[in-house]
Amino acid sequence: MAGPHTHKLTLLSGMAMLLQSCSRETELYDVIYWYLPKIFSHVSGRICLQEKNKHTVLPVFEWGKPSQTAVAPKPLKCEVLGKGLPVSSRKTSLACCAYCVPLKDKDGVIGALCVGNPQFSLSEQYRKLALITAEYLSLSVSNIRLNHQLYELTIRDPLTGLYNRRYMDEILEKEFQRARRAGTALGGIMVDLDHFKILNDTLGHDAGDQVLKTVAHTLIHATRTQDAVCRFGGEEFFILMTGGTINDYLTRAGDLNTQISALDILWQGVSVGPITVSLGVAGFPVHANTPEILVHKADQALYRAKKQGRNQVVCAQL
């Protein structure tokens, strides 16, 4: 008859197989939520991960009853994060748990698996389980993050860092489906730089690129995190807004127009001159009932803004 340790190894093997199929970190949490309390059934613990592109390490999952004094390991003080070495509370009073094991990817430490109360030593069996578990978790987290980075490269415009046309088509379809189910509205704002060809011909494409990057940065910081800002092509941008009303979209477009007009963009120490934009606004369901029609209606409104003198906001016609 298989003993407790053999059962834990069987659980560990099952967890490893499921971790390989995870494509998002939230899916990984669902797997470890079920397995880790069973693998480490008599001790508490936590998993801490470094936030992407940051040095902050935060607990992302806990099980059992962690010590009231338990804290996330500190990057500048912890040997696990600083040196990438396992740490036992038997060897240092600074340990955040009984046994702390680093989680690593090809570039270094990305987190830690913290097992047990620092006031007690952990058995050899649990230490071995922790080492194996950390390897499986490291591989899964690093693969998920690498795949995310690769995906980001396919949906980002390399010059401005905004979402590209491919992502715009994807998110439009998803948000339309969500809005139809929830009975909510969507807004589309098409933005086009006025007289951009003259600027390119006069100052050169490098100056034009600087203008595009500055305007893109302005659009990102002037919109909400739930809005999608995309480079539609050339000097055109498209903003998808969720929720709100057509009046909200028109107000946001007016604010964008004002902020961009106030920019003083320098190229080689010299101002490129006043930058203005024309904006076309359309909404679902008031103007369009498909993603394609929303974009077309916003583009038509933009064309009217250009025809009426540029540097203005125009709403789509019913």
Automatic annotation (TrEMBL):
Q: What is its EC number?
A: 2.7.7.65
GO CC annotations? Answer: plasma membrane
- According to the UniProt entry, the coiled-coil residues are none
Q: Which UniProt keywords apply?
A: Nucleotidyltransferase, Transferase
Q: Which PROSITE patterns match?
A: GGDEF
Q: What SUPFAM superfamilies does this protein's entry cite?
A: GAF domain-like (SSF55781), Nucleotide cyclase (SSF55073)
Instruction: Cite the InterPro entries for this sequence.
Output: Diguanylate_Cyclase (IPR050469), GGDEF_dom (IPR000160), Nucleotide_cyclase (IPR029787), Rev_trsase/Diguanyl_cyclase (IPR043128)
Enzyme's top EC category: transferase
User: What reactions does this protein catalyze?
Assistant: 2 GTP = 3',3'-c-di-GMP + 2 diphosphate
Q: GO: which molecular function terms?
A: diguanylate cyclase activity
User: Gene3D superfamilies recorded for this chain?
Assistant: 3.30.70.270
Q: Which residue ranges does the record assign to the GGDEF domain?
A: 184-318
Q: Which SMART domains match?
A: GGDEF
BP GO annotations: cell adhesion involved in single-species biofilm formation; negative regulation of bacterial-type flagellum-dependent cell motility
Q: Which domain of life is it from?
A: Bacteria
Q: What is this protein called?
A: diguanylate cyclase
Source species of the chain:
Desulfotignum phosphitoxidans DSM 13687
